Amino acid sequence: MAKEATEVSYGDVLSRVSRGEGELQPDRMALSMGPSHPSTHGVLRLMLDLDGETVTRCEPVVGYLHRGDEKIAENMTYNQFVPYTDRLDYLAPLANNVAYALAVEKLAALEVPPRCQAIRVLVSEMSRVSSHLMGLGAYALDIGAMTVFLYTFTEREKLYTLFEELTGARFTTSYTRIGGVARDLPGGWLGKVDKFCDQFLPVLDDCNDLLTRNRIFLDRTEGVAEISKEDAIGYGLTGPNLRASGVPSDLRKDCPYSGYEHYEFDVPIGARGDCYDRYLVRFEEMRQSIRIIRQVIQSMPDGPWYAEEAKKIFAPPKDKVMTSMEELIQNFMIVTQGPQMPAGEVYFEAENPKGALGFYIVSKGGGVPYRLKIRSPSFCNLSILPKVARGCMIGDVVSLLGSFDFVMGECDS
Amino acid sequence: MSEEIVSRLQERFTEITPRESLDWPAVNCPARQWADLAAALREEYGYRFLMDVSGVDWKEEAPRFMVVYHLFSTRKHAYLRVAVACPEDKEPEVPSVVKVWPTADWHERETYDMFGIRFRGHPELKRILMWEDYPFHPLRKEFPLAGWETELPDREVAEQTGAKVIGAPMMGGPFVAPDEGPMSEREPRARDETWTEKNPKPKK
After folding, report:
1. Which residues contact B123 (CB under 8 A, 6 or more apart)?
2. Which of A96, A106, A112, B27 is the most buried (most CB within 10 A)?
3. In the CATH scheme, what is the homologous superfamily, with its name and number, of domain B2-120?
């Protein structure tokens, strides 16, 4: 809307500036960054107050992608909600599926067979690699290193091809069910994953050569936006962002779930908590994930891939549904009324690529949750932005956002 | 171990009671004691992480609103659930814990946004996921899945176009069979039937 133009003389401006009155200070500027800005990775909007190039205030505005997932969950059965978890952290849908399934199984006090657990660990780690590849590539792209993005995206494509073979979808996988997974591993698939690991590590070394000792990359990341241990804990940071600040907290080690205690891996931590440390931690996590993937492939147990005894929770195999009365009824009950859960409340968190993804489920019995709260890591990670971004240069904000590796689908749920 | 922390807390904070839980130790805490308990939990009991804040709307039950906190101890690798009931149903309010855990800032704003629960002492309690002028609190149980009609957030656009935020059409919405009632009526149906071909959307 065009405002009525008023004539302002130069002398007038100068005198008002010297008195320090708000709008007319030539070095002060309010900048709205986003919601559609290449470095905000989605629909994050930052309201920045700038003094020259220095950020004096940063206020993140979130919620542009709010779809009301928690309300939706209260209105459908537990299994129907699985596809919605794909759309939380849409760069690691498999890990979200697993976290959600484990939360509901905790409510049902159901333990899935070892093969199912191993499959879940395998897909979680694969999606961790794919998520970090995306985060790493996009981060390097944001601060001017284009080549790395091409390398990481090629590898991510290979992973997506494997996901497609396993789940039938590349992006929205919806692979887990309450009490199991959607289908067993296809024949020969593990060999393909193993082959991927073999050729992946040299590519990772190439990326390492391109970035880790790169002078320009170091200048943009080293010492930028340091987060102290106390702040990281106080603001509820989780995942690589927390570990980069030197807190050795990893739920896979601290509260092992789905059989993570059987695998050997190290938890990398940072020393300073700056953008460079966050990059290094992610980089090393990919190597550790490959280590876990190889152990899973070597020790993949045989046996059932879903909880066979949980007849009120996991739908029976299709061929039995078509031929046997009892299984037909079971299938009908599970599809229409949902897997039957006891009343009570549970809270479960899984170590996802972005941090701890938690589900708090209040059940009054039956197949529909009374209340389902999603604790999304990106939401908590972003809440520290006002504190960290203050005092940064405007160019460093781009570097800071990239190093946080957040996803708005998860933040806004 | 789970019982131990609850009984130790009970010795010191006489008003808290154990809470039923399927997994982690849990306590009920009255709103008036929550600020003291929170500070003690962080400083003396090692719960340095506030992982999650969640509102719960219990509908007819009294008290209606409750805020559930999940704390995590990095030393013991264990969670603690604290449920704080809001004394008033009309204007639910609990003390803010932003000063204890800075992460509570955004969590409390989210809970306020979704349930209308106010947090006394919060530095800037405003909506976070919905826009500032949005009139409802969507996670309250009376709010239908389809939503209610409201004004657009941008007044200028609303004036120019006459458009409104309309409820979502639920025809073919998520199908669930109700848990109770006779079998003949237990066919799967959309749980939220606020707006179907037969029932017009209620005006708020």
Report:
1. B98, B105
2. A96
3. NADH:ubiquinone oxidoreductase Nqo5 subunit (3.30.460.80)
What's A270's domain CATH number?
1.10.645.10
A170 and A22: one domain? no
Residue A157 shares a structural domain with residue A244: yes
Asked whether the beta carbons of residue A367 and residue B21 sit closer than 8 angstroms, the reply is no
Number of structural domains in chain A: 2
Is there a single domain that holds both residue A43 and residue A151? no
- List, in order, residues 6 or more apart from A171 with CB less than 8 Å away: A86, A90, A93, A160
Residue B202 structure tokens? 């209620």
Question: What's the predicted TM-score (pTM) here?
Answer: 0.87
Neighbours of A364 (CB within 10 A): 15
Cα separation, A308 vs B87, whole angstroms: 46
Residue A43 DSSP SS3 = coil
B1 touches B23 (CB < 8 A): no
pLDDT at A121 over 90: yes
Judge whether A183 and A207 are in contact, CB under 8 Å: no
> Hunting for tokens 């484990």 — which residue is that?
A102
Element (H, E) at A293: helix A275-298
Identify whether the C-beta of residue A385 lies closer than 8 Å to the C-beta of residue A58: yes
Domain ranges of chain B: 2-120, 150-198
What is the token pair recorded at B154?
């941008």
Is the N-terminal amide bond of A83 cis, ω within 30° of 0?
no
List chain B residues with pLDDT less than 70. Answer: 1-3, 169-204
Alpha carbons A99 and A359: distance in angstroms, whole number: 8
Nearest Cα residue in chain A from B56: A371
**ipTM, interface predicted TM-score of the complex:** 0.86
Q: Name the strand (E) or helix (H) holding A399.
A: helix A394-404
Three-state DSSP class for B24? coil
Residue A28 bridge partners (DSSP): A51
Find the CB nearest B51 among A231, A358, A371: A358
DSSP state of B44: T
Q: Residue A201 is which amino acid? A: L
Q: Which two tokens stand for residue B118?
A: 């106010």
How many Cβ atoms from other residues are within 10 Å of residue A330's Cβ? 19
Q: Tokens 């996921």 belong to which residue? A: B129
Interface test with B, best of A75, A231, A357 (most B CBs within 10 A): A75
B19, B21, B22: which to substitute to probe chain A, counting the most A Cβ within 10 Å? B22
Instruction: Report CB contact under 8 Å: A367, B176.
Output: yes
- Compute the half-sphere exposure of residue A250: CA atoms within 13 Å on the CB side of its CA: 18
Interface test with B, best of A70, A332, A360 (most B CBs within 10 A): A360
Q: Are A42 and A354 in contact (CB under 8 A)?
A: no
Residue B141's closest chain A neighbor by CA? A71
Task: Give me the residues paired with residue B72 across strands.
Answer: B49, B79
pLDDT one-digit tens code per residue, A55-107:
888 899 988 888 888 988 888 888 889 999 998 888 899 999 999 999 999 99
CA distance A220 to chain B (A): 27
Is there a contact between A235 and B103 if contact means CB atoms under 8 Å apart?
Answer: yes
